[in-house]
């Protein structure tokens, strides 16, 4: 900038050729006029001094050289004019005027040359300023623009001619973060200001510029102008904003991850943790120093070992440890970390994620526990789980199912493998059952035999029901889920039970021997009496003078018939008769009832009867023959079951109740919801051979009565036709029975 109080700072615009030509013409005309005046007029003044005007006119368009040439030409013209006007006489005064003119020309030429040199420097500087891409603007203290470089033109789209002389706000609208007055005050105080400004151009473009303001002062220190350098950072700023937005988005995403994310330096120092770490109650900036205090003391050594190993080897890390939450609770967490390795193989960063696995861990433990319970239960109950899809029969077998089928655990479960084990006699039935299941999806409940490779036969009970579920491949699919029970043992026990029941019935018959004897004696005496009568008659017919053989034959036939009848009766006695001594001991009647209920469980199930045991509190001790009294209870229960077998349209209920009566007796009631007993039958119920059932013997209740009475008790039947029957028996309680036993009078 040129010095001085006036600021000249507009860019020196080069003159156009026309202007140059007109300047040269004017200068030449003036020079010619001066020369004419100097050479041809006899004026005694230094006219040639006026050549200085010519110098000043051509100065702006002259280079250094041309200016020297102009000065030399003008000085030559001065000398020529002097010679011409003074002829050969050179008086001192004209010579002095000529020298003054030459001196004036030399001085003005010298000064002009200096000025040209300065202007050249300025032009170079301005050209340099124009070369910069920054927008350079200078405005004076009245806020009038006095310099506007090409950068400003390019940035704001406004040419220097339009900008110079105007106020900056007329060219571009700037949003200042503070009032402009305050900013200018700061500029005046400090001489500098810099910051970022948002600007709107005349054409509506939004810009962000990095702006630097510098205050220029004159020699006296007065503020002269403000140099503004604006650098367009719009693009960079937008990118920065975009990067920041993306970073925030990534940060928000990382913070939202339901896991503790962290980044550490190559040597393992945490450099970043996400927001989730705040759940640990430790300030995020201190996690780096205190993470180890969050790890359970029992798990810390292992974690540190794993971490050290990962750091040393650069391998990924995986560790499960308990970590303490902000609420003080220890929760299992899974730590996974992996290194970022540069192209030279050096670890740059470690990226880690710590996930809360408390719930999955608990669920896994619970699952493992329940699986082990299930496996245990399956083993104990000899029940395997079995599942299969239909119609494709993709099968699942539990371990116990494998054991039941006798296959190794790694065998492929399949329908073929299952059918291969089914007993040949049951094969057709089972395969048709499975085929039907594939189409009708009905529940499966079947019992069949398996023939094992060692020829062992197992009896199994398969129950399964179909459930619909969405298949992996989409669409609904049916799957059977069920249980395969090895009932071999149970069936063996059941068979044994039936054998026992048969034996029990046999024992029943034995115990009634006394009673039967009386009945049978009554029955046998009648045919014997008839035999005797026929014998007598036959003798009489023989002893006649003329024996009547036909009559004898008839008597003998009658005798044979009656003897056969008697023989049959005797045969019955024989079959029933076996000696057994009563065995009386104290026992718990409640336990006996429960045991009896188990023995009749099969019949209860077969006839879909609801059994209820309502037993007296605690132990109900009785002294008696346990086997005989069990016969009584079983008999009464079986009678009730048989009576209800044909009951339809109402629930079949059987209740066995035991109690202590006020009369110091033990009472057992067997109630049913069967057809009840007709009033007339109630009287005959306990008589031998009274039965209303086609296949009945009519001995059960009479035997029961004899057993109960032999124990000093009583048995009765209560019934209302259509409302069920109750058979009750009472026995003296244990103490009285014991005393009876000790007396020996009844036992
Ligand atoms: P059986 O059972 O061989 O017929 P019982 O002496 O045990 O011989 O029974 C005699 C009869 O008593 C039965 O035929 C039946 O008519 C009747 N009875 C016994 N218990 C009941 C009962 N709970 N409900 C209805 N009738 C019964």
UniProtKB/TrEMBL annotation:
The UniProt record lists the Histidine kinase domain at 519-735
Q: Where is the PAC domain?
A: 191-245, 317-369, 444-499
What Gene3D superfamilies does its record include? 1.10.287.130, Histidine kinase-like ATPase, C-terminal domain, PAS domain
Provide the transmembrane region boundaries.
Answer: 20-37, 43-61, 68-85
- What keywords is this UniProt entry annotated with? Kinase, Membrane, Phosphoprotein, Transferase, Transmembrane, Transmembrane helix
Any idea what this protein is called?
histidine kinase
PAS domain segment(s): 121-191
Q: PROSITE patterns annotated for this entry?
A: HIS_KIN (PS50109), PAC (PS50113), PAS (PS50112)
Q: Which NCBIfam families match?
A: sensory_box (TIGR00229)
Tell me which EC number(s) this protein carries.
2.7.13.3
Q: What is the lineage of its organism?
A: Bacteria, Pseudomonadati, Pseudomonadota, Betaproteobacteria, Burkholderiales
Instruction: Tell me which domain of life the UniProt entry assigns to the organism this sequence originates from.
Output: Bacteria
Q: What class of enzyme is it?
A: transferase
Catalysed reaction(s) here are: ATP + protein L-histidine = ADP + protein N-phospho-L-histidine
InterPro entries tied to this protein: HATPase_C_sf, HATPase_dom, His_kinase_dom, HisK_dim/P_dom, HisK_dim/P_sf, PAC, PAS, PAS-assoc_C
């Amino acid at each position: 900038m040129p010095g001085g109080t006036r600021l000249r700072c507009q860019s020196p615009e080069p003159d156009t050729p026309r202007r140059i030509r007109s300047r040269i013409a004017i200068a030449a005309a003036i020079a010619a006029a001066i020369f004419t005046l100097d050479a041809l007029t006899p004026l005694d003044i230094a006219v040639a001094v006026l050549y200085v005007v010519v110098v000043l006119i051509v100065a702006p368009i002259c280079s250094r050289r041309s200016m020297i040439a102009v000065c030399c030409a003008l000085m030559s013209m001065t000398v020529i004019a002097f010679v011409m006007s003074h002829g050969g006489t050179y008086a001192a005064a004209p010579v002095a005027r000529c020298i003054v003119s030459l001196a004036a020309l030399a001085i003005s030429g010298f000064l002009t040359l200096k000025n040209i040199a300065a202007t050249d420097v300025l032009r170079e500087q301005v050209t340099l300023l124009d070369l910069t891409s920054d927008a350079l603007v200078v405005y004076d203290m009245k806020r009038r623009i006095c310099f506007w470089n090409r950068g400003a033109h390019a940035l704001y789209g406004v040419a220097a001619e339009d900008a110079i002389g105007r106020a900056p706000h007329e060219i571009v609208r700037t949003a200042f973060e503070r009032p402009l007055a305050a900013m200018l005050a700061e500029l005046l105080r400090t001489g500098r200001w810099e910051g970022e400004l948002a600007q709107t151009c005349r054409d509506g473009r939004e810009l962000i510029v990095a702006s630097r303001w510098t205050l220029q002062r004159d020699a006296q220190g007065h503020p002269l102008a403000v140099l503004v350098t604006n650098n367009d950072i719009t693009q960079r700023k937008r990118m920065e904003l975009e990067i920041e937005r993306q970073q925030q988005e990534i940060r928000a995403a990382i913070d939202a991850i339901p896991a503790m994310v962290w980044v550490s330096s190559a040597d393992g120092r945490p450099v970043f943790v996400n927001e989730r770490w705040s759940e640990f109650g430790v300030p995020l900036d201190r996690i780096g120093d205190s993470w180890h205090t969050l790890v359970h003391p029992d798990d810390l050594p292992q974690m540190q070992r794993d971490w050290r190993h990962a750091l040393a080897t650069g391998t990924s890390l995986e560790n499960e440890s308990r970590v303490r939450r902000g609420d003080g609770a220890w929760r299992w967490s899974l730590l996974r970390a992996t290194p970022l390795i540069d192209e030279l193989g050096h670890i740059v960063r470690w990226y880690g994620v710590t996930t809360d696995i408390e719930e999955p861990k608990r669920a896994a433990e619970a699952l493992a526990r329940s699986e082990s319970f299930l496996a245990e239960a399956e083993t104990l109950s000899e029940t395997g789980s079995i599942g299969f899809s239909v119609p494709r029969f993709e099968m699942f077998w539990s371990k116990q199912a494998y054991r039941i089928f006798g296959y190794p655990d790694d065998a492929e479960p399949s329908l073929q493998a299952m059918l291969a084990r089914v007993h040949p006699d049951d094969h057709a039935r089972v395969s048709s059952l499975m085929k039907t299941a594939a189409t009708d999806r009905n529940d499966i409940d079947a019992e069949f035999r398996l023939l094992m490779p060692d020829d062992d036969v197992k009896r199994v009970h398969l129950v399964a029901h179909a459930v619909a579920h969405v298949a992996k491949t989409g669409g609904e699919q049916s799957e059977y889920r069920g249980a395969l029970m090895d009932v071999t043992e149970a069936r063996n026990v059941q068979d044994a039970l039936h054998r026992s029941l048969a034996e029990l019935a046999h024992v029943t018959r034995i115990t009634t021997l006394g009673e039967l004897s009386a009945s049978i004696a009554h029955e046998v005496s009648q045919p014997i009496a008839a035999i005797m009568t026929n014998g007598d008659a036959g003798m009489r017919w023989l002893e006649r003078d003329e024996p009547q053989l036909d009559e004898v034959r008839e008597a003998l036939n009658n005798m044979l018939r009656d003897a056969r009848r008697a023989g049959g009766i005797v045969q019955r006695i024989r079959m029933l008769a076996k000696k057994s001594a009563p065995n009386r001991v104290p026992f718990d009647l409640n336990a006996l009832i429960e045991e009896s209920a188990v023995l009749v469980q099969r019949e209860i199930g077969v006839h879909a009867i609801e059994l209820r045991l309502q037993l007296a509190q605690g132990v109900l001790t009785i002294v008696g023959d346990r086997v005989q009294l069990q016969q009584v209870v079983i008999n009464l229960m079986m009678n009730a079951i048989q009576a209800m077998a044909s009951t339809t349209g109402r629930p079949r209920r059987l209740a066995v109740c035991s109690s202590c009566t006020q009369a110091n007796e033990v009472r057992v009631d067997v109630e049913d919801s069967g057809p009840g007993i007709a009033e007339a039958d109630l009287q005959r119920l306990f008589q031998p051979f009274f039965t209303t059932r086609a296949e009945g013997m009519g001995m059960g209740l009479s035997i029961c009565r004899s057993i109960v009475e032999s124990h000093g008790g009583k048995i009765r039947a209560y019934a209302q036709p259509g409302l069920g029957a109750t058979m009750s028996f009472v026995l003296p309680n244990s103490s009285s029975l014991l005393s009876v036993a000790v007396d020996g009078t009844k036992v």
